[in-house]
Amino acid sequence: MKEFPAKTMLLVTMCTYLSLSAEPPPPPPQGPFMGPPLGIIFPFPDPEGKEFEKLAQDLKLTKEKKDKIKSSLDKKENLLKEKVDKMSPLHEDLRSILESEKVDLTAVKSKLQEISNIQLDIRMIQIQGRLEFESQLNAEQKTTVKAMHKKRMDTMRSRREFISNPDRPECIVEPKK
Q1: Which residues have C-beta within 8 Å of that of residue 83, sequence separation ≥ 6?
Q2: pTM for this structure?
Q3: CA separation for the pair 83, 80 (Å, rounded)
Q4: In sequence order, which residues have a C-beta less than 8 Å from that of residue 122 and are 6 or more positions away?
Q5: Cβ burial 130-155 (10 Å sphere, 16+ → b, else e)
Q6: Quick check: 74 and 39 in contact, CB under 8 A?
C-alpha cells in the first residue's frame, strides 16, 4: 500500500478541521409571502428600475406612457408591500398557536383564513396591476409582452422539468486530453 506524504496528510487534516469549524451556511431565502413583495410585471421587485427600463426600451414606450405606467406600477407595488408586511406577524402568530400546550383548532383555522385572505389580496393586486399595465399598451406592444411572458414561462417549465425528471442524464465531464 502506498503511503501518503506528510504534506498531503497535513492538508487533508487542515481542510477537515476548517470545514468542521466553519460557520453554518446562511438560511434559505424566505418564501414569497414572508420576504420582499412580488412584483406586478416581473417575478421579483425591481427597486432600481433596471428591468422596467429594459422593458420600456423593448416595447418602445414614449416618455409620457413610460411615466404613466411607472406611476401606476409604483402604486401597486406599495399596496403589495403593505399586504406582504402583514404576513410575517400572522405566520408568527400561527406558529405560536401551534406550539402552545393545547392547540386551539378554531384559532388555527381563523389564522389560516386571515393568511389566505391576504394571499388572495396580494394575487388580486398583481392581476389588477398587470391588467392596468397591459391596458396602456397598443396591440404590437401587447403581442411583444405576451411573447416575452411565454418565453419566461417556457424557461421556468424546462428548468422545473429538468430538476424533477429522475431519468435526466447525469452530467459527464469529459477528461482533458
Answers
A1: 37, 118, 121, 122, 125
A2: 0.63
A3: 5
A4: 33, 37, 38, 80, 83, 84
A5: beebeeebeeebeebbeeeeeeeeee
A6: no
Supply 41's cell numbers: 410585471
Distance from CA of residue 113 to its chain's centroid? 23
- What pLDDT, in 10s, does the model give residues 39-54? 666 666 666 678 888 8
Cell 388580486 belongs to 124
The cell for 119 is 394571499
Q: Provide the CA 46 distance to its chain's centre, in angstroms.
A: 12
Distance CA 112, CA 90 (A): 9
Q: What are the cell numbers at 80?
A: 403589495
Task: Return the amino acid letter for 157.
Answer: R
Angstrom distance (rounded) from CA 57 to CA 37? 24
d(CA 5, CA 150): 58
- Distance, in Å, from the CA atom of 113 to the CA atom of 131, rounded to the nearest integer, reads 27
Q: Grade residue 157 by pLDDT with cuts at 50, 70 and 90.
A: confident
**Which residues, at least 6 apart from 12, have a Cβ–Cβ distance to it below 8 Å?**
4
Q: Using one digit for the tens of pLDDT, what is the confidence trace for 143-156?
A: 998 998 888 888 87
- Grid coordinates in use for 44? 421579483
